[in-house]
Amino acid sequence: MGLYKRGQVWWMCFVYRGKYYRRSTETVDRGVAVDIFAQVKDEIAQGRLPRIYFDKVTFDELAEAFLDDYRINRKDTLGKAERSVKYLGRAFGGMKVIDIITDKIRGYIRDRMNQGYSNASINRELAALKRMFHLAVKNTPPKVSMIPYIPMLKESNIRKGFFEHHEFLAPRDALPFHLKPVVTFAYHTGWRRSAILKLTWDKVDLRQGIVRLDPGETKNEEGRTIYLNEELLREMGALHCKRHLGCPYVFHRNGAPIREFRGSWGSACNKAGLKDRSFPDFRRTAVRNMVRSGIPERVAMIISGHKTRRVFDRYPIVSDEDLKEAARKQQTFIELQSLTETVTKSLHSAKKIAFFKRRPEAKHIEIIGAYGRI
Fold first, then answer.
1. Is 117 exposed, middle or buried (0-12, 13-18, 19+ CB in 10 A)?
2. CA dihedral 91, 95, 101, 105 (to 10 degrees)
3. Taking the domain 59-138, which CATH number applies?
4. CA-CA 20 to 30 A from 365: which of 118, 193, 295, 344?
């Protein structure tokens, strides 16, 4: 271990876990080089890879590793990850990772907010940046020495939409024929749109009325089995009779997979007077309907594919009708209590009258006792 010169610049050589490293101190001042080398030796003594080891790692290297992780694991949200990297790259592209500190991240947040982007959109990009650093730390050897503090913004975009039964029927009837079964399946199961559109016939057993998804085929990576109710069983049976040979998908358009239908959905909702409703509202609706019908929360989560019970905490699984029903139940309970007290008093009075008829002298004794207490 020691310092040496290459031209006018001071370099250093050090050993970490039996491996030799050579790094430039990027200075011609020997005093500064000595201080840098002392810091390196101190970090090695503490069992840490010297910070200067990471001076060549750039944001682009972390971003590529991040996208590779998505590609290797075949994640459905690769497109969204690529968009986040594109926006982050405009600010941090080519920058050394050791220079990406909290102050610069806050500057990125301010710039994105000034450009008119929502807190939710910015948070998705910050989450991607945070994931890059976590993957870099897990790398062998690690690509970063530490993860900078990445502040997240408060989001106030909690969705609250539900479909009452008549509200579900109205847009469904306005949809093209090939999309009607899709929303029916979503209304009853609460599955994500991507899971519904990817469902294939090899996952469906109409004899037993079962639909199965294997582990790794869902967003939360867990397998899922549901039993079809009567309406879904009829719907799936009709689709099976009209299926296209060579097309593995349960839901399709003339034998071709359905990719996107936001335009058709938006038009159907407008016709039904439900402009504020979105397709993800079916997830909350299905969970709420299951809970209303007495299905335990855990079972409802398995059917809909929610990995945690955050759906019950983050989203209010109640509507105005639920609150009105709660008020009606409370009033009925209070009225029943009042009626019970009245009936009890009436029965007590009737018993006393019957007793006094049998023993008239008891009434006289009771009156004297009452005055005596006064």
1. middle
2. 10
3. 1.10.150
4. 344
Exposure string over 61-95, b if 16+ CB within 10 A, otherwise e = ebbeebbeebeeeeeeeeeebeebbebbeebbeee
Q: Which amino acid is at 236?
A: M
In 3D, which of 337, 356, 360 has the Cα closest to residue 348? 356
Domain boundaries, the chain: 2-54, 59-138, 165-318, 321-373
CA neighbours closer than 13 Å in the CB half-sphere of residue 77: 11
Angstrom distances, CA of residue 71 to CA of 67, 195, 327 = 6, 19, 52
Encoded tokens for 333: 């309970």
Which tokens sit at 158?
A: 């909690």
Instruction: For the chain, 374 residues long, give each residue's pLDDT as a single digit of tens.
Output: 688 888 888 888 888 777 777 878 888 898 888 888 888 788 778 776 676 667 778 999 999 999 999 999 888 788 899 999 999 999 999 999 988 999 999 999 999 999 999 898 999 999 999 999 999 989 877 888 788 999 999 876 555 577 888 888 999 999 999 999 999 999 998 888 888 998 999 999 999 999 887 765 655 556 678 888 899 999 999 999 988 888 999 999 988 989 888 889 889 988 888 877 888 888 888 888 887 787 777 787 777 777 666 656 555 555 566 666 767 777 787 778 777 777 776 766 665 566 555 555 554 444 444 444 43
Cα dihedral: 296, 298, 302, 304 (round 10): 70
Torsion of CA 287, 293, 297, 298, to 10 degrees: -100
